[in-house]
Amino acid sequence: xxxxxxxxxxxxxxxxxxxxxxxxxxxxxxxxxxxxxxxxxxxxxxxxxxxxxxxxxxxxxxxxxxxxxxxxxxxxxxxxxxxxxxxxxxxxxxxxxxxxxxxxxxxxxxxxxxxxxxxxxxxxxxxxxxxxxxxxxxxxxxxxxxxxxxxxxxxxxxxxxxxxxxxxxxxxxxxxxxxxxxxxxxxxxxxxxxxxxxxxxxxxxxxxxxxxxxxxxxxxxxxxxxxxxxxxxxxxxxxxxxxxxxxxxxxxxxxxxxxxxxxxxxxxxxxxxxxxxxxxxxxxxxxxxxxxxxxxxxxxxxxxxxxxxxxxxxxxxxxxxxxxxxxxxxxxxxxxxxxxxxxxxxxxxxx
Length: 351
Ligand SMILES: NC(=O)C1=CN([C@@H]2O[C@H](COP(=O)(O)OP(=O)(O)OC[C@H]3O[C@@H](n4cnc5c(N)ncnc54)[C@H](OP(=O)(O)O)[C@@H]3O)[C@@H](O)[C@H]2O)C=CC1
Ligand SMILES: CC(C)(CO)C(=O)C(=O)O
Hints:
CATH architecture of the largest domain: 3-Layer(aba) Sandwich
Strand order of the largest sheet: 5-2-1-6-7-8-11-12
Shape: globular
CATH class of the largest domain: Alpha Beta
Number of helices: 14
Bound molecules: NADPH dihydro-nicotinamide-adenine-dinucleotide phosphate, ketopantoate
Order of helices and strands: EHEHEEEEHEHEEEEHEHHHHHHHHH
Structural class: alpha/beta
Oligomer: single chain
Strand content: 15-25%
Number of domains: 2
Largest sheet: 8 strands, mixed
Distance between the termini: 53 Å
Helix content: 40-55%
């Protein structure tokens, strides 16, 4: 059996680690947050979801980051899943590197585009990417994770695992098989197109949640805020396409339509209809809050420079204007510094 260590047991890491453990996999969670690790050791990971039936408590092997050196006395790590925030990627990879098996590898199970950061430490050959599309989890108390997206059905694949070069290898096939114990999973031959599509999705929702303090369904329910998210998405897709990526769908939205939505009224309407429909169809629960919004509530650093900030940086490099992504990045920075408080008006006034 493969030994899997999850470095960064936040909402995503704890959720996946608990469900893999439930399916008898060899999982170790590794995290800095003392109370969280202690709560898991005492009581297990408490999962809840959109219905009562989703509630369960699973005992999981958890280690404090300060105990990581103990790994030297244990079975080498076959798969290290990095599920930290993007700004913690380098040290997390550096920390786990000495404990990897000879053929061990590191998987970025994060948002944003962190594979190059990981490859800089363990090499491209030991780097794998995995997108988690529509999992919507929140670590709202030590050891307690709530999910606000239904589990994937036949029409939606949650985990998309891919090699950097796009070929289907035994190790990514095996990883997708493992993740399918948690939810729907597949191997993608288009990791970069998936990554940029998810980045565009996050560019639409995460910064806006942080600046407004709004939850996912409220964002889609407000015409002015919704307009702003569509502009963000259009810019993000334009930049991704200019970089040469063949973007996959952004949520349910065709990227070519989204790219035109800032100038073409028909394209705009098509995107808006989909966003409104997602809300009606309840593709996310009412408690769902994009992770950057969760960070603000918790008074923690956000990944904004890796989401909207990154889109704006790449746009600048290519000579593509990204005023909406620039603006939301600046606003989130101000919220983080406490010079403004989260409020929908920051966005509504511009939109
Ligand atoms: N949440 C989601 O639905 C999704 C998230 N992602 C991505 O996955 C990656 C991990 O995100 P996510 O799991 O949401 O991150 P979390 O914010 O849940 O956890 C990240 C880390 O923050 C610390 N932490 C979290 N909450 C607290 C708290 N209240 N007090 C003290 N420390 C806390 C923990 O340890 P430490 O102290 O070591 O920082 C934890 O490992 C990111 O790249 C994110 O964008 C991708 C898809 C969906
Ligand atoms: C759930 C989703 C897609 C919301 O933007 C996400 O990835 C996040 O919260 O970071």
